[in-house]
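Input sequence (692 aa), recorded before submission:
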Amino acid sequence: MDVFNLRNQLVGDYAEYISSFIYIRDQRIKQYADKILQEGQLWPDPLIQLNPSFEAGKTIHELVAEGLLHHECAQIFRINKETPDSKILKLHKHQEDALRAAAKDQDYVLTTGTGSGKSLAYIIPIVDHVLKHGSGKGIQAIIVYPMNALANSQLNELEKFINLGYPDHRGPVRFARFTGQESEEERELIRQHPPDILLTNYVMLELILTRPEDRESVIKSAQGLRYFVLDELHTYRGRQGADVAMLVRRLRDAVRSPQMQCIGTSATLASEGTYAEQQEKVATVASIFFGTRFTPEQIIGETLQRATPSYSETDTFFVDALNEQIKRQEGTFPSEYQEFIQTPLVSWIESNFGVDREANSDRLIRATPISITGKDGAAQKLAQLCDRSAADCEKIIIACLMAGYRILNPETEFPVFAFRLHQFISPGENIYTTLESSNERYLTVNNQQFKPGDRSKNLYPIVFCRECGQEYYSVKIHKNEEDGSVQFLPRDYTDLLKNEDDTPAYIYLNEEHPWDMNEDEIIDRIPDDWLEDDEDIKKVKTSRKKSLPENIRVSANGIQDHDGISVTLIQAPFQFCLHCGVAYHSRIQSDFLKLTALTSSGRSTSTTILSLATIRKLKQDGYLEPKARKLLSFTDNRQDAALQAGHFNDFVETSLIRTALYQAADKAGEKGMRHDELTQIVARELDLPFEQ
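Predicted structure, token format:
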């Protein structure tokens, strides 16, 4: 799969989507907006980071032979158990370090990155303990996950390791999930026949400690609990973190287990300072969480190793070889693993995207993600080393990354370059401009206070009427109490400043169709419900006079000044458009439905559009296996997850109905359809299964 092509297609689809519902009347602004959308200026260049190689530890078989693990672990923990060519599981060094800490009855926290096998670092010791002490002796381990999705994923992994390969798929260790997703029958089975390992979340664990039926069964069976695991420790922060810390203490008391072994995992708990300083910080956090003392030695980090030889960019021999390879290969690379990793460009890519040296240390750490493009990107850096343009270097780097993605390490069966592409997309951007005539004003998408090089001209965000595309400056009115001057400052148009002294407003600047203060002109342009009849003569209602637009003069620095440019001031919330006349009821306070910024789509809608576009592209991909053509979407909390799920469902349902309407109309042709038969025809075109 070409992830770079996928990224470009997604960004293109999103740009097409956000430009489809915004209408800009001013041609100069429209041309500028089209240009920045086509050039992709509204989203940063993607960041690239390699998944590094980990230093190898011993195999499960070697640890069994050593006596560290029960002999049955060699049968349980194998790779591809469902196939005839299953292989011995070889651990990473940090996984082996965790197993040895567990064997010494030490609490520990594993702080390693994504894809480092953190779960095996506590699953193997737990399974080993159950095998050595016997199954069916109550709950011996409780593993707490921050999200049910993680618990479900781990349940599948346990099924694969523990049950696969045994008669009737029943392994020597029993495990169960208790997260609130189970039926009452499944919960009752756990109460009556407690498993050896219980997977749950912190909310359900709180309930288990509270509910009498669970306390008398589940907690009673967990007396003398041996292992307690908190997965993804970094997700528990603030008040939630305090709640979880107190929960750990209550659990320890409830199961009467002062020697309960505490294990934590996290990708990021501390990121600043040296590795030793990070260990010390994490140990402090872990001590607070678990209510027991952690030392820096109990914090286990990842040990990285290079897949390629290490060279210095100041080494002239390496630079010459790098230049020679780029000139000779022109984007083609060896297909064999050993030959590929020995090439200078592959080594250079691992040094820039994969691993780096810790300051004042020989320890390898993950490299900071960087972009390929841009003035500080990797392509520009490579261009400075070799006699090629940045554009050529960009193509060469992408070709090398994709080649490394397809070439597998024969020992691990992982790609040489298992890399991640991070693309950040902001749901809302503005165009900013100066208070000048339409032919002279400066346009930018960079949020700054002044026009570059001219501090006498302020920049303001502009928004557009959803009906006609007329632009408005979004401002707030600030009155200086000392000298009585009035200044106009930039404002987010969705902010009505209800708790501030400043007043929200809009500025209308249209030389072709200015606001005329003539009474007859005003009556022709304001909404009908602003008028009343007085002896057959229409006039403005008294209650509406204070809301009428006001012509004023403002200088380019935002100060109301008699010598400034002539503009029209409108109160917020926005009540009617001065250009097209579309009007809104005074009860509608939000201006989001009346005006739009350059990319003012909602977060849920943007997520839905990007997700569906991704799935469409994945389904068209011929390289990935069908089961891998899927998307995993994360949200910050349950409320957002519920909102997004509803948005997905509503969007799909609306799309289906619109498709059916289109097909029905297309088939009807010029004859058309009658209103009374429309629903039946559309239902027939939907052709849904009866239950849907």
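Checked by second reader. The first helix runs from residue 3 to 20.
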